[in-house]
Design a protein that fits this description.
single chain; 453 residues; four-stranded antiparallel β-sheet; 3 helices; binds calcium ion; FG-GAP; Integrin_alpha_N
């Protein structure tokens, strides 16, 4: 693994909180969960939002990175980890009640991976969720094709840029096949268009030559292809965020720069004000900023927030179930939860006990309530910790006892506003409900193709 700052902090791969086919989250990231519009959601008030004590599931490796998606097509979120020691990817199948089955190794050949990203990279072959990473040791983008049952086929590798530090899935040429943005600590951030079979075309530079540990991918201007936002890439930077509009062929137009405080090191995306337009959130050394998107590729002035724990990237979700996007931050000293007000600002940060937290954290719906939960690497320990969101009660499920299969709670269907399609953010949708990704993506594309915003 390279030893750049980004690697040490664990490059999040999430990106597009909303865009792409990623089931993660993006990578997660995306991530995470986009909250439904506050106005359309009626939910009980969460009196004292927080997290139950972390439950740690053993892994063979010392977990650096974690991802969540539904790898076995049972509509329950699963976990994947990568770390040192075991030297491979491990998968923990989720039971849908907040517990997970024991870790199973998936790719013993991994040499030095970036943060894990997920999505249906091999969409021409099947519809199951795959894992994609940047393997800096071999200089490749590495895809583990999911078999749809929690296992994976032989890795598919494609040569990539030097010092690749993270991959973020997106559809940059609007062909419904997942591509990847590959970021680097050596200023060669590039796009690799996906062939739909797990391989990619040769890297094409994005035009952003800064250090970009965590970039945001979403369709910021609503034209159907995914765009990219980079932080200024400097630990001490002052430049803010640069937004690159996609040309729809894997290349990008001229960027627009937005002021975003003193350190936009990490940039992620979600809808913070419920207007279904992708917004941006930055963080880094010190505090961060939210930039509300106008839906045409432009953004409003930065709204500051405090409470990221000093250095960390936001893990976005709806942790109190009020339909407004929140941000959680991990640090070795403990977690920090910022509840969204639904206007791009946050309530005062609330600390939570994350146990022995690493820097990498992902959000997902691990049990049957309407709130996002968290999974985090457990510092230097061999395991992944699951933190279920609570609302004043804290019944922590124990991993040892496997509950009988009861009637599986149906995933809550988020109400959609009648007047406006909410499907612009492909990735976000995928993160929470992988099974619906394709259909939603298609629908979103249709809507966008018709010029509706
Ligand atoms: Ca599953
Ligand atoms: Ca594509
Ligand atoms: Ca918005
Ligand atoms: Ca919330």
């Amino acid at each position: 693994m390279n030893t750049s700052v980004s690697s040490r902090f664990g490059m999040p791969g999430r990106r597009r909180a909303v865009s792409l086919l990623a089931a993660a989250a993006l990578t997660s990231g995306a991530l995470a969960a986009t909250a439904a519009p506050a106005s359309a959601v009626t939910v009980p008030v969460c009196a004292t939002p927080g997290f139950a004590a972390p439950v740690t599931y053993p892994t063979a490796n010392m977990v650096l990175f974690t991802a969540t998606a539904d790898f076995n097509n049972d509509h329950k979120a699963d976990l994947a980890t990568y770390g040192h020691g075991g030297g491979d990817i491990e998968v923990l199948t989720g039971n849908g009640d907040g517990t997970f089955d024991p870790a199973v190794g998936a790719d013993p050949g991994m040499a030095s991976a970036s943060r894990l990203a997920t999505g249906d990279i091999t969409s021409d072959v099947d519809s199951s969720i795959d894992i994609v990473v940047a393997d800096s040791a071999s200089g490749t983008v590495r895809v583990l094709p999911g078999n749809g049952d929690g296992t994976f086929g032989a890795p598919i590798t494609t040569p990539t840029i030097l010092n690749a530090s993270m991959v973020i899935p997106g559809d940059f040429d609007d062909d419904d096949r997942l591509d990847v943005l590959v970021t680097s600590g050596s200023n060669n951030n590039s796009i690799m268009l996906g062939n739909g079979d797990g391989t990619f075309k040769a890297p094409a530079p994005t035009g952003f030559t800064g250090y970009a540990p965590l970039a945001a991918v979403a369709d910021f201007d609503g034209d159907g292809d995914d765009d990219v936002a980079f932080g200024d890439g400097s630990m001490m930077g002052t430049n803010g965020i640069e937004v690159f509009p996609s040309n729809g062929d894997g290349s990008f137009g001229l960027s627009t720069a937005y002021g975003a405080g003193t350190s936009a090191l990490f940039v992620s995306t979600a809808d913070f004000n419920g207007d279904h337009e992708a917004d941006l959130i930055s963080s880094g050394m010190g505090d961060g900023m939210v930039l509300l998107g106008n839906g045409d590729g432009s953004f409003q002035s930065a709204l500051p927030y405090t409470g990221n724990g000093g250095l960390g990237w936001p893990t976005l979700g709806d942790y109190n179930g009020d339909g407004k996007t929140d941000a959680a931050f991990a640090s070795p000293m403990g977690g920090s939860l910022l509840l969204g007000k639904g206007d791009g600002t946050f309530q005062a940060p609330v600390s939570f006990n994350g146990g022995s937290m690493g820097m990498d954290m992902v959000s997902g719906r691990f049990d049957a309530d309407n709130r996002s939960d968290l999974a985090t690497s457990s510092g230097l320990a061999q395991g992944v910790s699951v933190l279920l969101s609570t609302c004043g009660t804290s019944a922590t499920p124990t991993p040892a006892v496997k509950p009988k299969p009861v009637v599986e709670p149906k995933p809550t269907v988020k109400p959609k506003p009648a007047t406006k399609p909410a499907l612009k953010w492909k990735t976000k949708v995928k993160l929470e409900k992988p099974k619906l990704e394709k259909a939603k993506l298609k629908k979103a594309k249709k809507i966008r193709g018709g010029g509706v915003k």
